[in-house]
Amino acid sequence: LKLQFLYLIVIADPADRHLKMPKASPAKKGPEKKASAAAKSSEPVVIPDPQQPWFVALLLWPLRLYGIYWALSQAYDIRLIAIRDYGTVIHEFDPWFNFRATQYLADNGVERFYKWFDYMSWYPLGRPVGTTIYPGMQLTSVAIWNALPSFGVEMSLNDVCCYMPVWFGVIATVFLGLLAYECSGSVDNAVISAAIFAIIPAHTMRSVGGGYDNESVAITAMLMTFYFWVRSVRGGNSWIIGVLAGLAEYYMALSWGGYVFVVNMVALHAAVLSLTYVMRKEFDLTLHKAYSLFYVIGTYGATTVPVIGMTPLKSLEQMLPLLVFLAMQVVAVIEYQRREK
Question: Structure pTM?
Answer without folding.
Answer: 0.82
